[in-house]
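ugh ok fine here u go
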Amino acid sequence: MPVFLDTNVLVYLYSNTESQKRDASISLFKKYTCVTSTQALNEFCNVYIQKYKISSKELKKFIGNIIKSCDVRLVTEQIIIDAINLNNKYGYSYYDCLILASALDSNCNTLFSEDLHNGQTIESKLKITNPFTNLPTQVQAQK
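structure:
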């Protein structure tokens, strides 16, 4: 059964500052058949352009690697309608509900996300799992 990856899992794949989360994200790709959406890729690009100011060449490389390793699903008209319904039912933001609707549409039983309620099940089908909850606390370097 495939698993769905939220934007934050993708962002941590290339983190230079969060090595444990980077390693956890990489391990998801090694362990599972992964699915994500065009929305998550767009959000990933925005984070790396705005926050990390990386070059377009490097960003294209990162996106290319994700696309090779992940089934990328389009956000369709039906997913938009489903997201509106999920927003009404669960109260998550509309954009979070797009992720949920995309995961449900992709027949995933797990959504890996750092941002949503860990352990919650959506529509009796999709379990939200935070892949970073059991990481040991990183030791701060002493000055």
